[in-house]
Specification:
binds nicotinamide-adenine-dinucleotide; single chain; alpha/beta; seven-stranded mixed beta sheet
Length: 382
């Protein structure tokens, strides 16, 4: 059954069906509570594999389209990871730095409005955190990414996504005859994902030669001290305050010769205009959609191996799904390692066999699983 709500946003009536294809979306729900100043959109894309899981993003400039695109990305990511979950996402219009009491009121109001949307399980995303998930759980009885006291596995603290990324890279290097011992790593966006990816790869013998944040790139070809750099970031400072190495401008990280380049900041950072600047053998996508389709094709032409985002950065959602099943932290790590290694191997083998891009092989893997799941569902199979 497809249920789509009519949409009114910024005074504009939208045609919600413009996103529709054979997979979804199943529902797009617009929420408006004027007394709370609450405007939000929930996109439930596909639930053939199970109730949808996806983050709650809070930002002043979110949109219905963003909610849908992110929900679709979760459909593919969750199916590729073999999780019993479909894809969903929600966006709340607002500045996430608003006073705490106001934010709690808004998020609790949002949670009350989605109480009966049982096919959507909220998780943290930009502008929301584990405390926000605790408020949502309190109102609805369901959310992931909870504080430890409520049975949560703090995925950013343990570095679930960075750990998975390092496992994907470990599989990929075997395909191109690169050894991790002494391999040079550059990270764009030294935040939660970037720091942990550098840390877990470092345990496998790599050297971090460059790291960037919104203010600068820090470079040391002899190797940056990951713990010292992450202590700086934890103190709210910039990589440019690192006491050794060379400080360059923010985007200089793109030009840094390395073996493994990790985008872990924003979408669309590598485009047709700057892709030729990359001097690496592997691009391991920590961020979601960091390369445009043209840039990904250009990298393939140059023989640079791209590990697609929704395969390589699925560690966070695998951890969240383990938490939802009341699993433990060590079960989460085991599931991330097993699933990401298997998927990376399958995707790279299929791409090689069929001469397609790894992303195309990954989409085909995920969509194949969703289609098979849809055949088992009464309302999705016809
Ligand atoms: P974060 O906020 O902890 O870290 C982001 C880092 O990127 C910060 O250090 C910030 O200074 C830096 N940054 C922002 N814009 C930049 C730019 N233009 N150039 C260089 N650095 C820049 O966020 P995170 O949780 O590490 O997430 C990073 C990306 O990975 C996001 O795109 C997110 O959607 C994606 N992602 C995160 C997870 C997760 O588990 N946290 C899972 C999957 C995907």
């Amino acid at each position: 059954m497809t249920r789509l709500a009519g949409a009114q946003e910024e005074g504009r009536v939208e045609d919600a069906f413009r996103f529709a294809d054979e997979l979804g979306p199943l529902m797009i729900v617009h929420i408006h509570r004027p007394s709370l100043g609450l405007k939000a959109v929930v996109a439930i894309d596909n639930t053939a594999c199970g109730p949808s899981v996806g983050g709650v993003r809070m930002a002043p400039d979110v949109s219905t389209e963003e909610a849908f695109r992110l929900a679709r990305a979760m459909t593919l990511k969750n199916a590729a990871a073999g999780l019993p979950h479909g894809g969903g996402k929600s966006v709340i219009f607002g500045d996430p730095r608003m006073p705490r009491a106001q934010k709690e009121r808004l998020i609790r109001g949002f949670a009350a409005a989605i109480r009966d949307l049982a096919d959507y399980i909220p998780g943290p995303d930009m502008g929301t955190d584990e405390t926000a998930m605790a408020w949502i759980k309190d109102e609805t009885g369901r959310s992931v990414g909870l504080p430890r006291e409520l049975g949560g596995i703090p995925l950013d603290e343990i570095g679930a996504t960075g750990f998975g990324l390092a496992e994907a890279v470990d599989v990929a290097v075997g395909q191109i005859g690169l050894s991790l011992k002494g391999a040079r790593v550059a990270v764009q966006g030294f935040g939660s994902v970037g720091i942990h990816a550098a840390r877990y790869l470092g345990k496998k013998g790599t050297i971090l030669v460059a790291a960037s944040d919104t203010q600068a790139t820090i470079v040391d070809t002899d190797g940056l001290d990951i713990e010292a750099l992450s202590a700086l970031k934890a103190a709210g400072r910039s990589v440019k305050e690192y006491p050794r190495g060379r400080v360059l401008d923010r985007d200089a990280v793109i030009d840094m010769p390395c073996d493994i380049w990790i985008p872990a900041a924003r979408p669309d950072v590598i485009t047709a205009e700057n892709v030729a600047r990359l001097d690496t053998r592997i691009v391991a996508q920590g961020a979601n959609i960091p390369c445009t389709p043209e840039a990904e094709r250009a990298l393939a032409v140059r023989g640079i191996l791209v590990l697609p985002d929704f395969i390589a950065n699925a560690g966070g959602v695998i951890c969240a799904a383990t938490e939802y099943q009341q699993g433990t932290q060590s079960q989460a790590f085991a599931a991330i390692e097993e699933k990401i290694r298997a998927n990376t191997m399958a995707v790279l083998a299929d791409a090689k066999r069929s001469g397609t891009l790894p992303r195309e092989a990954a989409v085909s893997l995920a969509v194949g699983r969703i289609r098979r799941a849809m055949q088992t569902r009464r309302w999705d199979s016809r």
